[in-house]
């Protein structure tokens, strides 16, 4: 498949977070338009000023992505107005079973699936009509290495990221022939509030700016799966191909027992 055109207009959901903010900064340059979504208005304004100082034109939108109809309608409208080249579906949340293994609260599980899965799909749904009409565009879905093999401490999060991985792979097969590039991003541990709030070991932790540079470069090459860092990527992929009983034993040995 051909390489995508260098994106001039980039929409990022969850731009107010660690990875989203770093992505906004790597795409912030003269001639580019950034469309940044988040809930934290103060952080959105701060980020917009930073990106504008680098020469980018910036549009911001405060929106709770759980309002899926509003989200999809906004993405649809802005995609028609601005001819968005690249949509980075990044907004996400994480929950865990708690320090004593009590379990995830059902309300939290539902909220997580709403944000990580349904809102991600609503974003894509809003972006597709304009991209399909033009026969070009790129969609980057932020999954996680946790998609390879469910982690005991974060079963719902792992499931949500596995859903996004499969969704992105399916979209790529469907939309590639139409000229729309779809990429699945699978980061390991990247420094952000979400990562800091996570229990358990965090080997090979990357700063967000490094992750953003690697994602940008993988997207420019239209890599179907952009997964990093190498040792953790290889290890977690290995867990998905071994017999599950062996994978569980390995995870327990390295401290991922919930
Ligand atoms: N950090 C890691 O180690 C890691 C690893 C693998 C994958 N990821 C994925 O990377 C993505 C970005 O995460 P991050 O690490 O940058 O975490 P983060 O700093 O906590 O950022 C999360 C972002 O999602 C937005 N968001 C969450 N719920 C929302 C809602 N209901 N409505 C609107 N926006 C909402 C937040 O916006 P507000 O703050 O404005 O509410 C924020 O911009 C997520 O999809 C995450 O699962 C992260």
Write the layout of secondary structure elements.
Layout lengths: L8 E4 L5 H10 L5 E6 L2 H13 L3 E6 L5 H15 L3 E4 L16 H29 L2 E6 L12 H21 L4 E8 L5 H5 L10 H13 L4 E4 L1 H12 L2 H10 L5
Parallel strand pairs: 1-2, 1-4, 2-3, 4-5, 5-6, 6-7
Radius of gyration: 18 Å
Helical amount: 40-55%
Low-confidence stretches: none
Which class in CATH terms? Alpha Beta
Give the helix/strand class.
alpha/beta
- Can you tell me the number of structural domains? 1
Overall shape: globular
**Which superfamily, in CATH terms, is the homologous superfamily?**
NAD(P)-binding Rossmann-like Domain
Strand order of the largest sheet: 3-2-1-4-5-6-7
Major sheet attributes: 7 strands, parallel
Number of helical segments?
9
Question: On the 0-100 scale, what is the average pLDDT?
Answer: 96
What is the H/E order?
EHEHEHEHEHEHHEHH
CATH architecture descriptor: 3-Layer(aba) Sandwich
In short:
This protein has helices spanning 18-27, 41-53, 68-82, 106-134, 155-175, 193-197, 208-220, 230-241, 244-253; strands spanning 9-12, 33-38, 57-62, 86-89, 137-142, 180-187, 225-228.
